[in-house]
Amino acid sequence: MRICATLLASSVAAMVMASPAAAQSADKISNQYICTFARSMPGADVRNEAAKAAGPVLGQVLFTYEHAIKGFAVHTAALSNGRSAVAEMKRANPKIAGCEQDQVMKIVARPGGGGGGGAEQTPPGSPRSVDPST
Hints:
Elements: H1 2-17, H2 20-24, E1 27-37, H3 46-58, E2 59-65, E3 71-76, H4 85-92, E4 96-104
Antiparallel strand pairs: 1-3, 1-4, 2-3
Protein backbone atom coordinates (compact mmCIF):
# COMPACT_ATOMS: atom_id res chain seq x y z
CA MET A 1 0.00 0.00 0.00
CA ARG A 2 2.86 2.37 0.86
CA ILE A 3 4.50 1.72 -2.53
CA CYS A 4 1.23 2.42 -4.35
CA ALA A 5 0.76 5.74 -2.49
CA THR A 6 4.36 6.73 -3.21
CA LEU A 7 3.98 5.93 -6.91
CA LEU A 8 0.74 7.89 -7.09
CA ALA A 9 2.29 10.92 -5.40
CA SER A 10 5.32 10.70 -7.71
CA SER A 11 3.09 10.49 -10.79
CA VAL A 12 1.09 13.56 -9.75
CA ALA A 13 4.29 15.51 -9.02
CA ALA A 14 5.71 14.50 -12.40
CA MET A 15 2.58 15.64 -14.22
CA VAL A 16 2.61 18.99 -12.44
CA MET A 17 6.30 19.62 -13.10
CA ALA A 18 6.49 17.91 -16.51
CA SER A 19 6.12 20.85 -18.82
CA PRO A 20 6.32 24.48 -17.74
CA ALA A 21 5.78 25.42 -21.39
CA ALA A 22 2.38 23.71 -21.34
CA ALA A 23 1.25 25.84 -18.41
CA GLN A 24 2.36 29.01 -20.19
CA SER A 25 0.38 28.19 -23.32
CA ALA A 26 -2.97 27.89 -21.52
CA ASP A 27 -5.84 29.73 -23.17
CA LYS A 28 -7.20 32.51 -20.95
CA ILE A 29 -10.99 32.76 -20.73
CA SER A 30 -12.13 36.32 -21.27
CA ASN A 31 -13.91 37.96 -18.30
CA GLN A 32 -13.88 34.73 -16.26
CA TYR A 33 -12.05 34.32 -12.94
CA ILE A 34 -11.49 31.88 -10.10
CA CYS A 35 -11.57 33.68 -6.75
CA THR A 36 -10.61 32.15 -3.43
CA PHE A 37 -11.41 32.86 0.19
CA ALA A 38 -9.30 32.05 3.24
CA ARG A 39 -9.18 28.31 3.97
CA SER A 40 -10.67 29.01 7.39
CA MET A 41 -14.00 30.08 5.86
CA PRO A 42 -16.72 27.48 6.54
CA GLY A 43 -17.83 25.75 3.35
CA ALA A 44 -21.44 26.59 4.15
CA ASP A 45 -20.64 30.34 3.85
CA VAL A 46 -19.02 30.20 0.41
CA ARG A 47 -22.23 30.53 -1.63
CA ASN A 48 -23.42 33.62 0.24
CA GLU A 49 -20.00 35.28 0.21
CA ALA A 50 -19.62 34.63 -3.55
CA ALA A 51 -23.05 36.18 -4.19
CA LYS A 52 -22.09 39.18 -2.03
CA ALA A 53 -18.90 39.66 -4.06
CA ALA A 54 -20.50 39.39 -7.51
CA GLY A 55 -23.66 41.23 -6.58
CA PRO A 56 -26.34 42.01 -9.11
CA VAL A 57 -24.01 44.05 -11.36
CA LEU A 58 -20.43 42.73 -11.22
CA GLY A 59 -20.87 39.21 -12.53
CA GLN A 60 -22.55 35.83 -12.54
CA VAL A 61 -21.31 33.15 -10.15
CA LEU A 62 -20.78 30.03 -12.25
CA PHE A 63 -19.68 27.57 -9.57
CA THR A 64 -18.74 27.52 -5.91
CA TYR A 65 -15.92 25.48 -4.37
CA GLU A 66 -16.73 24.52 -0.80
CA HIS A 67 -14.42 21.62 0.09
CA ALA A 68 -10.81 21.34 -1.16
CA ILE A 69 -10.63 25.09 -1.68
CA LYS A 70 -13.04 27.81 -0.65
CA GLY A 71 -13.96 30.00 -3.59
CA PHE A 72 -15.97 30.50 -6.73
CA ALA A 73 -15.81 30.84 -10.51
CA VAL A 74 -17.36 33.99 -11.89
CA HIS A 75 -18.04 35.51 -15.30
CA THR A 76 -17.60 39.23 -14.84
CA ALA A 77 -19.46 42.03 -16.54
CA ALA A 78 -17.64 44.69 -18.53
CA LEU A 79 -17.85 47.86 -16.45
CA SER A 80 -18.60 51.11 -18.25
CA ASN A 81 -16.56 53.18 -15.76
CA GLY A 82 -13.30 51.49 -16.86
CA ARG A 83 -12.70 49.91 -13.46
CA SER A 84 -11.75 46.29 -12.98
CA ALA A 85 -14.63 43.99 -12.04
CA VAL A 86 -12.19 41.93 -9.93
CA ALA A 87 -11.12 45.02 -7.97
CA GLU A 88 -14.77 45.91 -7.45
CA MET A 89 -15.56 42.38 -6.21
CA LYS A 90 -12.68 42.56 -3.74
CA ARG A 91 -13.98 45.92 -2.55
CA ALA A 92 -17.50 44.49 -2.21
CA ASN A 93 -16.21 41.51 -0.23
CA PRO A 94 -12.85 41.91 1.55
CA LYS A 95 -12.94 38.20 2.46
CA ILE A 96 -11.68 37.40 -1.04
CA ALA A 97 -8.04 36.31 -0.74
CA GLY A 98 -7.30 36.50 -4.46
CA CYS A 99 -8.56 36.06 -8.02
CA GLU A 100 -6.90 34.61 -11.12
CA GLN A 101 -8.13 34.67 -14.67
CA ASP A 102 -9.68 31.32 -15.56
CA GLN A 103 -7.99 29.36 -18.30
CA VAL A 104 -8.29 26.19 -20.34
CA MET A 105 -5.66 23.65 -19.33
CA LYS A 106 -4.60 20.83 -21.65
CA ILE A 107 -2.83 17.61 -20.79
CA VAL A 108 -0.89 16.06 -23.60
CA ALA A 109 -0.28 12.32 -23.24
CA ARG A 110 2.83 10.81 -24.71
CA PRO A 111 2.27 8.28 -27.50
CA GLY A 112 2.22 4.76 -26.18
CA GLY A 113 0.83 5.61 -22.74
CA GLY A 114 2.50 6.32 -19.44
CA GLY A 115 5.79 5.53 -17.77
CA GLY A 116 8.07 2.69 -18.80
CA GLY A 117 7.95 0.50 -21.82
CA GLY A 118 6.85 -3.08 -22.14
CA ALA A 119 4.41 -5.21 -20.21
CA GLU A 120 4.08 -5.08 -16.44
CA GLN A 121 5.78 -7.98 -14.70
CA THR A 122 5.82 -9.13 -11.09
CA PRO A 123 9.37 -9.98 -9.98
CA PRO A 124 9.89 -13.55 -8.71
CA GLY A 125 9.43 -13.84 -4.95
CA SER A 126 7.06 -10.85 -4.69
CA PRO A 127 4.06 -11.41 -2.40
CA ARG A 128 0.77 -11.68 -4.19
CA SER A 129 -2.72 -11.01 -2.87
CA VAL A 130 -5.12 -13.87 -3.39
CA ASP A 131 -8.87 -13.33 -3.25
CA PRO A 132 -10.32 -16.29 -1.32
CA SER A 133 -13.74 -15.81 -2.95
CA THR A 134 -12.44 -16.93 -6.37
